[in-house]
Amino acid sequence: MPNNAFSVHALPDLSGKLYVVTGGNAGIGKTTVAGLASRGARVYMGARSAEKAEKAITDIKRELGKPQADIVFLKLDLTDFKSAVEAARELRSKETALHGLINNAGIMGVPFSRTKDEYEIQFQTNYLSHWLFTYHLLPLLQSTALTQPGTARIVNVTSDGHERFTLKEGIRLDDPNLESESAMVRYGHSKLANILHTRHLNAVYGPKGKESSGIIVAAVHPGHIDTNLNKQATGMAPAVVLRIMTPIMKCIGILDHEAKGALSTLFAIADPKFTESGAYIVPYAKIGKPSQMAKDDQLAERLWEWTFKMFQEMGYL
User: Fold this and answer.
1) What is the CATH number of the domain that holds 283?
2) pLDDT, position 242
3) Does any domain span residue 9?
4) Is 127 a catalytic residue?
């Protein structure tokens, strides 16, 4: 059953701490930004649109009753690898510490399309660009972990879709775009990649990792939450059907309220009681078990090596 005892009020004072939330202008990301800011943290809101981000920041400050809340817009377009690198470099140029990176942004069940970088849009938005963004922020996270043990953390927001919509081989490295597969299989593919990314990060940079960096990492399944993702999944069902079904699913309890969507992320990124690096967090603020494929260390390493080589060849590393 969900751990309903956890709430944002259980978090300590986060004054002096700095966090980044991708996709922070809407949905679960916005709730995550609000939760961290409410505890005194400085939060960078990663988003494509400055206008939408500034509106979201204004909304959060009003809702919290804290006009002084420290929330900063960070331009980040995850459909553009160059943007991911530039955003990380901007952050590193401005800040000397980073206590938490929440790779939250994502899309689900959209029709097949390619980004300007020629990758399927779900795989790039949900996994590839987050991998690249994270890689360029690792030096900042490592230095923070060394000077302030236990405070530097990475959360990759995934989904139980990693198990429900999967390929028998897990990750198809020779065909990552999966053009011939369904929209939801492509979604599950990207979400499995998120967990495998988390697994390898822990193996290398975690408290017991090869580099002993001491960064605590987690993969978080936020739950089945009523967000715009459900309305965007037109690769799964027509928009008119989604508009009808979403309120029905919310009413009968299949979809939960948006406010709950950030609970597990907040637990993993800022609660001192969470120390099990590499864990898979499920609703709400509980340690769960991912699929067998998501626990495959060899697959995680192969995915990391494939991704590293691809970005290296493209000149982004």
Assistant:
1) 3.40.50.720
2) 38
3) no
4) no
